[in-house]
Prior knowledge:
Elements: H1 6-15, H2 45-58, H3 62-74
Amino acid sequence: MRITNPDEFDRIFDDGEQSILDYVDWSTAYRTGEKRQFVSVSLPDSLVASLDGEAKNQGLDRDRLIEKWLSHRLGEQVA
């Protein structure tokens, strides 16, 4: 089933008969109101390939994996 509008998402959540977690793209999820900054980093091709492989294994995109790892290393919790 594909959710096509916010009202449908709210209805599924309010009914509580099925989980909404299957309808969330966690690779692009972020806290609302959180200020974001773009950071550019140059990396060797081999490292980028390794990052992409690990990101795929975890079901994330590259940016989300890097954010997750940095947050863990710095002792912060990322939603």
